[in-house]
Design goal:
25 strands; alpha+beta; disordered N terminus; Dipeptide-binding Protein, domain 3; five-stranded mixed sheet
Length: 633
């Protein structure tokens, strides 16, 4: 992204809060009388799903940026794996998308990092919607341009929406309630919904990546036609603050700042995207990436290994103060990280068998032996947010659960969810005895030290499919406990390409997976847990959940009319997912561990929901660069 030192002087029309004061489409002051909506549409500079917008029309910049941040310099980051694609449309379905590709694209709106659910105009200068939320219209900035200088048009928006909806299974589910994208004026596109009341859809559509129709429908120099649904290593035309400068497939990609970027004067871009170059180097494993960082070949590193964080940062540059370690609190999301079952397979059909495998997982011992006691156990699909369930259901949450009572486990109403607790030989033995009892109830018996499925006469065998070798020592500890139950266990480490292919084909028993939750969850819940997504290859519902109660509660999340309804629906959904035992929850750490060479500056106060906000609002500090010159590890 990129900053401007000139004020953006475009004026947006009338500003109005949402119906009932629960969904704000603008920033009028509390107590002001909104104009009469029956007479004409009202256009707003931003929107928030619930509550008021923080920033009024014509605001100069976000509070968390430094408008005078210097431009220039570079950042080098490491990525594990490989890439073979620059096209975002088939991403997640075909090929491996290049790291940082979002830097070259603009969206209709841009999120604020100091509000939980607000977005402001980027490609769209304004938006409007009817009182029943049955549609939303976006009006494009007249200045918006592609990197080749041609205007961004309403045709481009419709083309982009159709491409993502029809060629990306994940987004197809995400957009399933959007029935049409139609040009309704020269620079205006209206999205129509299949039913009213979905307050999440305008925000979702604000995140639409807009692609150039004329480029994708044009031909290459060779005469071959471009295909929007295919992977490509041809650098695509885009409109964002960066463009691809150079690359080597699978090895590195470099982005350069666009000096004549059309959004130079936008308030949402001021103080952002200050680096001239952003480089991503690819590595086969975490060890080689860490060594490159210590040698000074990478500038910024996110540390995911508790062991490395506790014991690995002891090289000379750190002692000399040329490398800085810093943790940033994570307030912008919840997270479920877990061993995820493929419940499409008969051996995992019974929830008692899945629960038994949780009893075999001794988190407390693993946390002590491998993680240096740094983690806590995940106990919610919305871990770290107010939507995480606890205790017994009450009030609105209980009412929602009563409406699907016949389709949910009885424990939902009688018992607060809990994970088994280990940490000692005695508790481990007790947990395994309980696991064995659950397996017997699920139709398994032990014969000659092997756990046999009485329906098939075969031993229960499970394969852990992983692409990150760091999980292997953890699974080896887990493997020993499972083998004591008579389960045959294999661990298969594969390369990223094979891993993604097997995941798309649902060719796995158990994988390590994580689901990130925003502070205002919505339609993405269908792609995570919805029945339709369970049958859609490439969707995020890798577990294969097809559950009437889950579908019904997702609807309540999506169509929540206010924050209280959303929280109640989220807690109810969380509770039903937990008590169906679709996963064995793993661990979490509510801070981002980072290491960096001390070459960079940043605003005094970072945005509440931006975590580190690196490199978006940081810049290169010339004095620090001079102090760290020539400093390897």
């Amino acid at each position: 992204m990129k900053v401007s030192r000139r004020r953006f002087l475009h004026s947006i029309g009338v500003v109005l809060a949402g119906a009932g004061g629960t969904w704000a489409g603008g920033g009028y002051a509390r107590g002001d009388r909104p104009p009469n909506r029956a007479s004409q549409p009202s256009w707003w500079h931003g929107l928030s799903q619930f509550g008021d917008l923080k920033y009024p029309p014509g605001f100069p910049q976000f509070d968390y940026v430094d408008a005078n941040a210097p431009k220039g310099g570079s950042v080098r980051e490491g990525v594990i794996g490989t890439f073979d694609n620059f096209n975002r449309v088939p991403a997640g379905v075909r090929g491996n998308i290049a790291a940082g590709i979002e830097l070259i694209h603009d969206t209709l709106l841009l999120p604020s990092l100091d509000e939980p659910s607000s977005e402001y105009g980027l490609l769209a200068e304004a938006l409007t919607y009817p009182p029943d939320f049955s549609s939303v219209s976006y009006r494009l900035h007249p200045q918006a341009r592609w990197h080749d200088g041609t205007p961004i048009t309403a045709e481009d928006v419709v083309f982009s929406f159709d491409a993502f909806k029809h060629s990306n299974p994940q987004l197809s589910s995400y957009y399933r309630h959007v029935v049409q994208a139609k040009i309704t004026a020269e620079r205006e596109v209206t999205f129509s919904f299949d039913s009213p009341g979905n307050r999440d859809l305008p925000l979702i559509l604000g995140q639409l990546t807009v692609l150039p129709k004329h480029w994708w429908e044009g031909g290459r120099a060779s005469g071959a036609r471009r295909r929007i649904a295919a992977t490509t290593l041809e650098p695509p035309l885009a409109s964002g603050p960066y463009r691809i400068k150079r690359f080597e497939p699978g090895r590195m990609v470099v982005y350069e700042r666009v000096k004549d970027y059309w959004g130079e004067d936008l308030n949402v871009r001021r103080g952002c995207n200050n680096f001239d170059e952003l480089r991503f180097d690819y590595f086969r494993d975490l060890t080689s990436a860490f060594e490159a960082f210590k040698a000074g070949d990478l500038d910024w590193r996110v540390e995911y290994s508790a062991k490395t964080w506790a014991t690995g940062y002891d090289f000379p540059a750190l002692a000399a103060g040329r490398v800085v370690l810093e943790e940033f609190p994570i307030r912008n999301m919840g997270l479920m990280q877990a061993f995820a079952f493929n419940v499409r397979r008969p051996k995992f059909k019974d929830p008692r068998a899945r629960r038994a495998l949780n009893f075999a997982f001794d988190f407390e011992s693993i946390n002590k032996q491998i993680f240096h006691g740094q983690y806590e156990r995940v106990s919610s699909y919305f871990q770290g947010t107010e939507l995480a369930s606890s205790g017994l259901p009450q009030g609105k949450e209980l009412q929602l659960l009563q409406s699907v009572r016949e389709h949910v486990p009885a424990e939902v109403f009688t018992t607060a969810y809990w994970n088994p607790v280990g940490g000692s030989d005695e508790t481990a033995r007790g947990n395994l005895l309980h696991a064995m009892e659950l397996l017997k109830q699920a139709g398994f018996i032990v014969e000659n030290m092997r756990l046999i499925d009485t329906a098939t006469g075969e031993q229960m065998q499970v394969e852990f499919l992983i692409r990150n070798p760091a999980y292997k020592p953890i699974i080896l500890i887990y493997k020993a406990a499972l083998e004591r139950l008579g389960i045959g266990v294999t661990i298969r480490l594969v390369d990223p390409v094979q891993y993604e292919n097997r995941l798309r084909d649902w060719d796995f028993d158990i994988v390590v997976n994580s689901w990130v939750e925003t502070l205002t969850p919505g339609n993405e819940q269908r792609t995570y847990w919805g029945s339709k997504a369970a049958q859609t290859p490439g969707s995020r519902n890798i577990v294969g959940i097809s559950n009437h109660a889950v579908d019904a509660l997702i609807d309540h999340v999506v169509f929540a009319r206010n924050r209280a309804e959303l929280v109640a629906a989220g807690k109810a959904l969380d509770r039903v997912l937990l008590w169906n035992h679709y996963v064995v929850p793993q661990w979490t750490y509510q801070k981002l561990r980072t290491a960096r060479w001390d070459r960079y500056g940043r605003p005094q106060v970072l945005p509440k929901y931006g975590v580190s906000a690196f490199p978006t609002i940081w810049w290169q500090d010339s004095q620090r660069v001079a102090d760290t010159d020539g400093s390897g590890g």
